[in-house]
Amino acid sequence: MKKITIAIDGHSSCGKSTMAKDLARRIGYVYVDTGAMYRSVTLYALRHGIIADGKIDEARLRAEMPNIDISFKFNPVTQRPDTYLNGELVESEIRNMQVSSMVSPIAALGFVRQAMVARQQAMGKEGGIIMDGRDIGTTVFPDAELKIFVTASPQVRAQRRYDELKAKGENCDLAEILRNVEERDYIDSHREVSPLRRADDALLLDNSHMTIGEQNQWLMQRVEEACK
Ligand code: DC
Predict the structure, then answer these.
(1) Which stretches of the chain drop beneath a pLDDT of 70?
(2) In what order do the strands lie in the sheet with 203-206?
(3) In the chain, domain spans
(4) Ligand 1: residues whose CB is within 6 Å?
(5) Distance from the CA of 104 to the center of ligand 1, in angstroms?
(6) End-to-end alpha-carbon separation of the chain, Å?
(7) H-type helices in 81-211, by residue range?
(8) pLDDT at position 184, please?
């Protein structure tokens, strides 16, 4: 089967990453979670006082961009790649509420996006890659052979995020998570640079009422068709 580029975009917390990681493992492709890259920049900014009281020092962040190295290493235990920030494993920390609440404004900055998109294009130039994010089918790989736009209702997505955080033992509030999901949807789709939107040639996958098994089957069929 020929190796193609698969672009998966969509709203936050709709299970995109889990779905894309599992698909990559099944078909032997490299998986890149671009949300983890924006989250890592946010974590760096928080740790270095570049974000204080919810305000971003843009000039400092711009100057620090070359010092932010983000990489992925395959974890044989989870069978998924883990995210590293300047060599430190940050896979868990980049998912906490503090990072989640600041990542959208960080991802809306043009110079941050420019740096991330360049790194993503370099990672995917050989094909055989599944990349998930918000602008993969529209900006990063507009010529991807397969583009999927994933969504689910905000309530379903908030509940999934809540269950995920609870399972990790984090203290969280469903109403606050729902607010965060809706706020991120708004910022992601209204920002000036690369707003979240479905590419004209992307297939729509609404998984609000789908089981993981149904979703996997749907995906495998789309991959087989795109690889013909
Ligand atoms: O997929 P996620 O929830 O981990 O993404 C975190 C944030 O990063 C989200 O607010 C949208 C933003 N993002 C983006 O703007 N472009 C991408 N390619 C990936 C994520």
Answers:
(1) none
(2) 30-33, 129-133, 5-10, 146-151, 203-206
(3) 5-226
(4) 12, 34-35, 38-39, 103-104, 107, 133-135, 184, 188
(5) 7
(6) 8
(7) 97-107, 110-123, 154-167, 174-190
(8) 87
User: What does the block give as tokens for 38?
Assistant: 């924006």
pLDDT digits (tens, 9 = 90+) for 67-105: 999 999 999 998 889 999 999 999 999 999 899 899 999
Among candidates 211, 210, 20, 208, which has minimal Cα distance to 130? 20
* Assigned superfamily of 5-226: P-loop containing nucleotide triphosphate hydrolases (3.40.50.300)
Model pLDDT, residue 194: 85
Burial class (CB in 10 A: 0-12, 13-18, 19+), 200: exposed
pTM for the whole thing? 0.90
Q: Name the residue at shortest CA distance from atom 3 of ligand 1.
A: 12
**What does the H/E/C string look like for 36-86?**
HHHHHHHHHHHHCCCEECCEECHHHHHHHHHHCCEEEEEECCCCEEEEEEC
In this predicted structure, what is the pLDDT of residue 47?
A: 98
In one letter, which amino acid is 75? Answer: N
